[in-house]
Design a protein that fits this description.
3 domains, 63% helix, two-stranded antiparallel ribbon, 3-stranded mixed beta sheet, Alpha-lytic protease prodomain-like, Alpha-Beta Plaits, 444 residues, mainly alpha
């Protein structure tokens, strides 16, 4: 499990190397928390340990701010040398599916070792070659390993929250496998049978994960209510606290690993916002966050039980976490469901109305009918792009060249980053097979 945790963090180590020293802050917090958990009654020593951890964190921040100006002078030369020295360490993964798709990612020694022994084009090579799928695979191994440990201690201690979280972790492993399959399949190219590609699998996986999380949260609440009615008490509280704390740390590894895929970010003048459009990674992030919430509920209930024994601490904490999981899953289900139904966002609908109003001003165009537009999420590009596809029926003037009108309309939409199939008919020739024949300004 330690090796798997290291591999997951290595896939995105920058999350622990921020200007605010997130990794150091997490270590200091864990130091202070551990001193409280294992010696809650010795308040002077606990307070001193927490104060020393806080002073260490503040001291490192101060030292970093003082040395930043000196290190900035040498950063350019170091980055240039580093780039040339490690150029050969980058892995180029080529997918031969009728075209060549290049993914330029820096991999760990272990990943490079596995890639060297995988046949190019195989399933394992496809998983290890992509950063997202690689992180999903590593965390699945880590999550499944700790699930076995948590199941044993949950059965021994009789913790409702820990057993429920174990069952949830098992289904999370299944959800991670489904998400892994969607992440790999979404990179497959188009074909005559799949002209729009497999990119919607990410949306479908996110929608399924969101529905599953909502159902799981309802199940958590139901089991918590049963625990309240039966009056189940916790046993082996100290061991339970240790296991739940370790489970929380495992889930924190997942949150750091998938946090980049969930949150968009903007560095300077360059747009790197590429996380909000991937519902698959969003769903996986919420699964990991739900696991972290379940572990946190067990931690809180055990600490409160050590402070003042009461059988309701565990079910009440479970209910609170379940409600938070449900509320977090609702936006994912709503957004992914809207994409599956090809719903046009409000801001895009306003732009489409303006584009259609200007369409009649083109030379040779007298009107249009039955416009249909939708988003296409192309996952072959890095970052994935959002293109607008559509079809429209255009009426041409009697004296106009229909082929010239068609090319003019297609070029007009291409300038707006819209790929539209245009059907042209001369004005007054009757109704077309698509149901047109009457000028319209409605968008669909």
């Amino acid at each position: 499990m330690a090796i798997a945790a290291g591999l997951v963090l290595f896939a995105r180590p920058a999350h622990l190397r921020t200007n605010k020293k997130t990794g150091l802050a997490l270590g200091c917090l864990l130091t202070a928390a551990t001193s409280f958990l294992f010696s809650p009654t010795t308040w002077p020593g606990t307070f001193c340990n927490g104060a020393i951890a806080a002073l260490s964190y503040v001291g490192v921040l101060y030292d970093t701010s003082q040395s930043h100006a000196h290190s900035h002078d040498h950063s350019h030369l170091h980055d240039t040398a580093h780039t040339h020295a490690h150029a050969s360490a980058h892995t180029h993964c080529n997918h031969h599916h009728g075209h060549q798709h290049h993914t330029h990612t820096e991999t760990s020694i272990f990943t490079s070792f596995l890639l060297a022994r995988c046949r190019p084009g195989s399933l394992f090579h496809s998983i290890l070659c992509e950063r997202d799928s690689r992180r999903i695979a590593y965390f699945t191994c880590l999550n499944f390993g700790f699930m076995l440990v948590q199941a044993f201690y949950g059965w021994v201690s009789g913790s409702l929250g820990l057993l429920s979280d174990t069952v949830h972790m098992f289904f999370d492993c299944l959800a991670l496998v489904i998400g892994l399959g969607a992440a790999v399949a979404s990179k497959w190219p188009t074909s005559p049978e799949m002209p729009f590609g497999w990119g919607k699998l990410n949306v479908l996986a996110g929608f399924g994960n969101g529905i599953f999380l909502m159902l799981v949260s309802v199940e958590f609440i139901w089991e918590a209510v049963e625990g309240i009615m039966e009056g189940t008490e916790l046993r082996h509280v100290e061991e339970l606290l240790v296991v739940s704390t370790l489970g929380f740390l495992v889930n924190m590894v997942g949150l750091f690993a998938f946090g980049h895929a969930h949150h968009g970010h903007d560095h300077g003048g360059h747009d790197h916002s590429h996380g909000h459009g991937n519902e698959n990674m969003h769903g996986i992030y919420l699964h990991v966050a739900a696991d972290a919430g379940g572990s946190l509920a067990v931690i809180l209930s055990t600490i409160l039980t050590l402070w003042k024994p009461w059988y309701l601490w565990d079910p009440l904490a479970t209910i609170v976490i379940a409600i938070l999981i449900f509320l977090a899953a609702v936006p994912l289900v709503k957004d992914s469901g809207a994409k599956l139904l090809l719903v046009i966002p409000d801001e895009l609908e306003y732009s489409l109305k303006n584009a259609l109003q200007e369409l009649s001003g083109l030379r040779g165009v007298t009107g249009y009918a039955v416009p249909r537009f939708w988003h296409d999420h192309d996952h072959h590009e890095e970052p994935p792009t959002k293109k607008i596809l559509g079809v429209i029926h255009v009426f041409a003037a009697r004296a106009a060249d229909t082929e010239d009108v068609r090319q003019r309309v297609e070029q007009y939409f291409l300038q707006l980053n819209m790929h539209v199939v245009v059907q042209v008919e001369r004005e007054g020739e009757g109704r077309c097979w698509c149901g047109g024949g009457v000028k319209s300004v409605k968008t669909g």
